[in-house]
Amino acid sequence: MKSSELNVATRWHFVNAVEQLVEAALNRIRAAAGEALRTRSAFHLVLAGGTTPRALYARMAGLDTDWRGWHVWFGDERCLPADHPERNSRMAQDAWLAGSAIPAAQIHPIPAELGASGAAHAYANTLHDVGEFDLVLLGLGEDGHTASLFPGHDWGTCPDSPDVLAVTDAPKPPPERVSLSARRLSRARAVLFLVSGAGKCDAVAAWRRGEPIPAAAIHPLAGVDVLAERICVRPNGEDA
């Protein structure tokens, strides 16, 4: 079965290695930034955490772009001290942002050191006047979670859901987190999932079967693109 026949709103793109995934993602970011800067003079990018995004961010400095128009946001954050090595903002800072030419005032980490509730409120205020994101980067957990939207929890899919959720009982440590809601992540011109590793096979299979996992709750008007390592797909007729 072709991927386009599974769900017209979810476009699957398989590559053979992480290096190819990173290169493809970099090309998509380059194109999205170029279009946004030409037409709107600003590029609003939402970053994901994780190992694969880190490899991507390490390549970002090589882009030929007008960094003055970039605005960087984060899809979720762990409630840890601001300089903690497990913070998504710290990872992005170390891999890319510390040496970038993006104006510091246009890099917007989630102040998760305030605690889940305080940080969610503060980040919602920061986002208040921001319209559609130009590009949202997301990952996929082995349980189907994305950002800090976990199975069995509130994903923020209702029309009146807040832009930012305070997560107080995450199944992965630390239990306190802050996450953009599915509704807010879907307010984007483009959404790109980066999926690598054989451990994601179950989640990918569930998604492709149409099961209601958190990742499938992200549905912008333009649809979703998933860049995935081929190893993430089970070697059987359904997913081949």
DSSP helix fraction:
25-40%
CATH topology: Rossmann fold
**Gap from first CA to last CA:** 8 Å
**Continuous helix count:** 7
Sheet/helix structural class: alpha/beta
The 3D shape can be described as globular
In what order do the strands lie side by side in the largest sheet?
1-9-8-5-2-3
Q: Which ranges are low-confidence, i.e. pLDDT below 50, for 5 or more consecutive residues?
A: 1-8
CATH architecture identity: 3-Layer(aba) Sandwich
Round the Cα radius of gyration to an integer and report it: 17 Å
CATH class equals Alpha Beta
Summarize the main sheet.
Answer: 6 strands, parallel
In terms of DSSP E residues, the strand content is 15-25%
Keyword list:
alpha/beta, Rossmann fold, 6-stranded parallel beta sheet, 3-stranded antiparallel beta sheet, globular, 6-phosphogluconolactonase_DevB, 6-phosphogluconolactonase, 6PGL
How would you explain this protein's 3D organization?
- The chain has 240 residues and is an alpha/beta fold.
- It has one domain (3-232): Rossmann fold.
- It has seven helices and nine strands.
- It has helices spanning 3-6, 18-40, 51-60, 88-95, 116-127, 182-185, 201-208, and strands at residues 10-15, 43-47, 70-74, 76-78, 135-138, 164-167, 177-180, 191-195, 224-229.
- The strands form two sheets. The chain has a six-stranded parallel β-sheet.
- Helix 3 links the parallel strand 2 and strand 3 (70-74).
- Residues 1-8 have low confidence and may be disordered.
